[in-house]
C-alpha cells in the first residue's frame, strides 16, 4: 500500500538545520499555505482525497496553437512532496536512481494539475483516517517538542522504575534465600550444640559419679583403718589392765604367804 506524505520545503526546526536552511519556516507558515490551498479549491468542496499522480500533460500541436486554441494553464507555485515506499518493495527504477545518497529526494508537483474530484469520503472520515501530527494540530512547535520530550521522559522514568522494581524484587528474593539459608544453618548449629551439650553432660555426670565413688571409697577405707586402730588400742589397753591385775594378785598372794610363814615361825618359837 502506498501513501503520499506532504513535507514542508525544509527540514525539521533544529539548531543544525536552522543554520543550514537560509529561509527558516514556522508552523504558522504551513497553516497559512494550507488555508490558501483550501481557499483556491473552494470552501464548499468536499474533503480532499489522497493525492494522485496526474497524467502526463499533453503539449498542444504547433498547427493548432496558431488557430486560437486555449493556451496551457500557468503552473502554480510548486511544493515538495515525498512518496513513502514503506509497504511497497517493488519501487521504480527512477526512484532508485534518486535515492543514491542516504536521503530520498522530493518530487515537485503542481497543485493545478492534481485531481480532487474523485473524493467520496467526508471530511471527518478523512480526518479520522489520516494520522494526526504535531504539524497539522493547533499546537505550536515548541509545545509539540515539549510533549515529545515529556513522553520520552515518562517512558524513561517508567523504564527506570521497572528496572528498579525488578532489581528490588531480585534483591528481596536473594535476601529471602539468604535468610532461609541462615535460619537453616542456625537450626543445624543449635541441634549440633544441643547434641554436644548432651554428650558433655553425660561425660560430666559420669566423671562426677566416678569422683564421688572414689571419694566414698577413700572415706570408707579411712574409717575402716581408724576402726582397726581404735580396736587394736582397746585390746592393748585391756591386755595391759589384765596384766596389772594379775601382777597385783600375785603380789598380794606372795605377801599373804610370807605373813603366814612368819606367823608359823613365831608359833614354833613360842612352843619351844
Automatic annotation (TrEMBL):
Domain of life: Eukaryota
Biased amino acid composition, Acidic residues: 84-100, 115-125
Molecular function terms, GO-annotated: inositol hexakisphosphate binding; phospholipid binding; translation initiation factor binding
Any GO BP annotation: poly(A)+ mRNA export from nucleus
Biased composition (Basic and acidic residues): 66-76
Database matches in InterPro entries: GLE1
Keyword vocabulary terms for this entry: Coiled coil
Identification of the protein by name: Protein GLE1 isoform X3
Coiled coil: 235-271
A GO CC term attached to the entry: cytoplasm
Positions of region (Disordered): 1-23, 39-127
Residue spans of biased composition, Pro residues class: 51-60
Amino acid at each position: 500500500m502506498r501513501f503520499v506524505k506532504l513535507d514542508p520545503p525544509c527540514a525539521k526546526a533544529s539548531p543544525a538545520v536552522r543554520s543550514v536552511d537560509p529561509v527558516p519556516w514556522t508552523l504558522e507558515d504551513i497553516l497559512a499555505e494550507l488555508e490558501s490551498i483550501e481557499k483556491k479549491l473552494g470552501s464548499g468542496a468536499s474533503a480532499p482525497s489522497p493525492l494522485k499522480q496526474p497524467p502526463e500533460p499533453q503539449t498542444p500541436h504547433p498547427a493548432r496553437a496558431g488557430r486560437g486554441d486555449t493556451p496551457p494553464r500557468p503552473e502554480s507555485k510548486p511544493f515538495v512532496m515525498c512518496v513513502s515506499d514503506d509497504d511497497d518493495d517493488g519501487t521504480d527504477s527512477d526512484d532508485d536512481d534518486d535515492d543514491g545518497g542516504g536521503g530520498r529526494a522530493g518530487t515537485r508537483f503542481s497543485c493545478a494539475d492534481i485531481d480532487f474530484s474523485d473524493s467520496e469520503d467526508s471530511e471527518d472520515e478523512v480526518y479520522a483516517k489520516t494520522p494526526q501530527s504535531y504539524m497539522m494540530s493547533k499546537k505550536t512547535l515548541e509545545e509539540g517538542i515539549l510533549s515529545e520530550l515529556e513522553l520520552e521522559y515518562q517512558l524513561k522514568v517508567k523504564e527506570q522504575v521497572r528496572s528498579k522494581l525488578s532489581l528490588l524484587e531480585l534483591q528481596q528474593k536473594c535476601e529471602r534465600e539468604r535468610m532461609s539459608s541462615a535460619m537453616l544453618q542456625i537450626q543445624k548449629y543449635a541441634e549440633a550444640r544441643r547434641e554436644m551439650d548432651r554428650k558433655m553432660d553425660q561425660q560430666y555426670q559420669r566423671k562426677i559419679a566416678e569422683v564421688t565413688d572414689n571419694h566414698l571409697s577413700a572415706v570408707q577405707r579411712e574409717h575402716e583403718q581408724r576402726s582397726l586402730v581404735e580396736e587394736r588400742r582397746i585390746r592393748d589397753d585391756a591386755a595391759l589392765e589384765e596384766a596389772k591385775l594379775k601382777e597385783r594378785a600375785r603380789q598380794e598372794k606372795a605377801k599373804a604367804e610370807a605373813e603366814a610363814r612368819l606367823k608359823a615361825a613365831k608359833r614354833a618359837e613360842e612352843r619351844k
